[in-house]
Design a protein that fits this description.
Distance between the termini: 29 Å
Structural class: mainly alpha
Low-confidence stretches: none
Radius of gyration: 17 Å
Largest sheet: none
Number of strands: 0
Mean pLDDT: 86
Order of helices and strands: HHHHH
Helix content: 55-70%
Number of helices: 5
Shape: elongated
Length: 83
Amino acid sequence: MSSQIARRVVAYFQKQAKPNPALEALTSREKEILDQLSKGFLYKEIAGNLFISIETVRRHVHNIYEKLHVRSRTDAVNKYFNR
């Protein structure tokens, strides 16, 4: 492998490994809920999976949107995956 290609490979993986600073503002519960949202679960399913009420899920999702500065599930999931 040439040194030029090796630098490109290293640069690619360094770029991929950067944590998203916006996600660091989320609590562990908010990260759990965002993970469930990314898997396509509905609020009712998330509430059942995490043993919390639907209103609690709604409140957490609202907080996630505020902290990530997004307005939709799609935007939040895209930030979660650094897209």
